[in-house]
Design brief:
The chain is α+β, with helices and mostly antiparallel strands. Helix content is 23%, strand content 32%. The chain has 13 helices and 43 strands. The strands form ten sheets. It has a seven-stranded antiparallel β-sheet with strand order 1-2-15-14-16-12-13, covered by helices on one side. It is globular. This is N-acetylmuramoyl-L-alanine amidase. Residues 475-492 have a biased composition (Pro residues).
């Protein structure tokens, strides 16, 4: 599993992966093991020293029970060890006892032990610049089930912060690896860092190959999203459509569906990435896949779907995919193949010509410059994409099950019954609003239930009244007049949807401000109309106060108010600009184990992002505060904590001892005390200052 956030990259190995350690002197991470087609991920490993202008790895290295390198200077360092039998672990790599070691290499220090933060730098004699700095870092961790987790950070982390990240990722043991300028990783031959240091050694993750019993763990199919990056492909400027975006949308959908169907699958690209013909075809060839589907949207004045196969293929798969898309209502144009004009023995398209033995089919779903075609593709792209998935499964003999239905027909039938009973006027409003992306919109559904309940209650009341007045056989009650659908202002407010954590982090970054008050520094958060919420001890009403926003603009600020009892205060930008970003205050409150994100300016590192979870929803003696595993350092006072909706739940004011439970293991660490925005006294103070109603 590969995942990239704004702050780190994580790759978790599964049963189809093999971990290795490879040394190639003078080479950078993305240059190591490039001739091996089974490599899916590379990452920097142990520390290195420079000798005769060449970096060389430091520490003991063991492979297959043999000592490849030994150094007495690292005798106290910990090691990552994969035994020939059993789960990986972090421990001591004894050069005299390596017969049972399949793979082992040293680094320093160990940072997680038994699911707890365990910075072992003193005992291991870790160099001070490694132990005490905040910099880009990398680490290797092990989960309780033995799964290996590799991490490279994209922003600065202390060892303590790195340890907490590894615990949050589920690791019970973890070892710090080299960092700073040596930090680098490489996924599917995608270069992450522009100028990599030639560290000469890398952790290499390989995809398992066919073991001879038919259980092939390499991809059966690789999906190619045509074009990307600076190459937009065909465009429809009037509609704002680009081929590269449509092909990626289709490819990501198919990738997810194949995963649901347990079909081994890979992608040439999973984002908007420039990918020329050579690296694109290399990814296809190196994947080990048997089949490739290259998704495209056509242009040039035609209409309908086309599929194109190699001159050396029989065309059966291309015809199968073509027929599948036509069966969904798209117009068919042709199934064909094409040769180079000057060489009839070579394919015209490089996706056929340069992908080796991979059976590649190019699918052109329609023409982006045809008015009817582009509407069909926009409207039905998911239907077409699913038809390709189904057809491929049928062609290869893979069991196919359709995607989970959203139940729209059932919804329409139910709403029709409700309409007949007078609870709603027409079903159209409710079909549009009650279900979003296949999920019931709770707020609308609740209103619908209330309407139905009112009708039922009215009918029951009328029946009881009639029974009392006319005996046990009352006449039928006339149908009540239909209730009008809600409209403004009675129309229900759409329920808020959670944001992605990347969106929350961006919002937290954009709205975090750096305080400069006399000789003190701190953090605050921008609210609507230029108001700033911070910790009371950060400000000083009698001195000149300034804040710096994320665009690096300095503003003078004016003191507005401070809470009489709690460590929280309000200021306001003197020269407020309406375009200044701001964040809303949460009206939901917090709950234990809820994830929160904050961006502060601690340890003189501006706009440093942090994340943690709510440990206790109130402190024993200070009920207006909650504690959180979000790290807290000097000058972080006033940092706002944002929830999954991108709204402020609290303001960090001090460091506290926090108890965290990871699985069945409890630990104590120094983290943050947060003033709860939903505390009654805080709410009253905010209302007095017209921040909330």
């Amino acid at each position: 599993m590969y995942r990239k956030t704004d702050n780190y990259i994580v790759f978790e190995l599964d049963q189809n992966h093999i971990i290795d350690y490879q040394v190639e002197l003078g080479k950078s991470i993305s240059q190591i093991a490039t001739n091996d087609k089974d490599v899916v991920f590379r990452q920097n490993a142990t520390f290195a020293f420079k000798e005769n202008d060449i970096y060389k790895p430091i520490g003991n290295i063991v492979k297959e029970g043999k000592l490849n390198q030994t150094m007495s200077s690292t005798s106290k360092w910990s090691a990552f060890i994969v035994p020939k039998n059993g789960k990986p672990y972090v421990g001591v790599l004894n050069p005299n006892d390596i017969s049972n070691v399949k793979l082992g290499f040293q680094s320093t220090p160990q940072i997680v032990k038994n699911g707890q933060v365990f910075i072992n730098s003193k005992e291991e004699a870790t160099p001070s610049d490694v132990a005490n700095s905040s910099t880009q870092r990398s680490a290797i961790g092990i989960k309780a089930n033995g799964a290996i987790v590799l991490v490279t950070t994209l922003t600065s982390f202390t060892l303590n912060e790195l340890a907490k990240l590894m615990i949050n990722l589920g690791c019970v043991e973890s070892l710090n690896l080299d960092g700073g300028g040596s930090t680098s990783s490489n996924y599917m031959n995608e270069k992450i860092v522009k100028n990599e240091r030639p560290v000469s050694a890398a952790i290499v993750v390989r995809q398992k190959q066919d073991n001879g019993d038919g259980n092939v763990s390499t991809p059966l199919i690789i999906i190619d999203a045509g074009h990307g990056g600076i190459d937009s492909g065909a465009e429809n400027k009037a509609l704002g459509l680009k081929e590269k975006e449509l092909t990626l949308q289709i490819s990501l959908y198919q990738y997810a569906r194949f995963q649901q169907l347990n079909v081994p699958v890979a992608l040439t690209r999973n984002k908007d990435e420039t990918l020329d013909s050579t690296p694109r075809t290399k990814r296809v060839k190196d994947s080990g896949a048997k089949y490739c589907i290259s998704n495209h949207i056509n242009a040039g004045g035609g209409k309908g779907v086309e599929t194109i196969h190699s001159i050396y293929a029989d065309g059966k798969l291309a015809k199968k995919l073509y027929d599948a898309i036509i069966s969904c209502g798209q117009l068919g144009r042709r199934v064909f193949t094409r040769t180079l004009p000057d060489n009839p023995k070579r394919d015209y398209y490089y996706m056929h010509r340069d992908t080796g033995s991979v059976d590649t089919t190019i699918v052109e779903y329609g023409f982006i410059d045809n008015a009817e075609d582009v509407v069909q593709v926009q409207k039905n792209w998911q239907v077409y994409a699913e038809s390709v998935v189904k057809a491929f499964c049928e062609y290869t003999g893979v069991k196919y099950t359709p995607p989970i239905s959203t139940g729209e027909n059932e919804l329409q039938n139910a709403l029709k019954v409700i309409q007949e009973q007078g609870a709603i006027n027409t079903p159209d409003y409710w079909i549009k609003n009650a279900v979003k992306n296949g999920q019931v919109n709770g707020e609308y559904a609740a209103l619908l239930i209330q309407n139905v309940a009112k009708v039922i209650n009215q009918l029951q009341t009328e029946i009881i009244t009639l029974k009392n007045n006319q005996g046990s056989n009352p006449p039928l009650t006339p149908k009540p007049e239909p209730k009008p659908d809600p409209t403004t202002p009675t129309e229900p407010k759409p329920i808020e949807q959670p944001k992605t954590w990347d969106q929350v982090l961006k919002l937290a970054t954009d709205t975090s401000v750096y305080f400069q008050v006399g000789g003190k520094n701190g953090t605050g958060v921008l609210l609507k109309d230029g108001y700033i919420l911070t910790a009371k001890h950060v400000i000083h009403p009698d001195v000149n106060m300034k804040v710096q926003t994320y665009d690096r603009t300095w503003y003078d600020i004016t003191f507005i108010s401070q809470h009489p009892d709690y460590d929280i205060a309000l200021c306001k930008i003197t020269d407020y600009k309406p375009t200044t970003p701001f964040v809303e205050l949460s009206n939901r409150g917090i709950k234990t184990n809820q994830k929160l994100i904050g961006v502060g300016h601690g340890l003189n590192v501006k706009w440093r992002s942090k994340e943690g979870v709510v440990c206790n929803d109130s402190l024993p003696t200070e009920k207006w505060k909650f504690d959180c595993s979000l790290p807290f350092d000097s000058d972080d006072s006033g940092t706002a904590t944002l929830d999954e909706y991108g709204q402020v739940t609290g303001i960090a004011v001090q460091r506290v001892s926090v108890g965290i439970k990871v699985g069945s293991v409890s630990q104590v660490t120094q983290d943050s005390a947060i003033i709860n925005i939903k505390d009654q006294k805080v709410q009253s103070w905010l209302k007095e200052n017209k921040i909330i109603k």
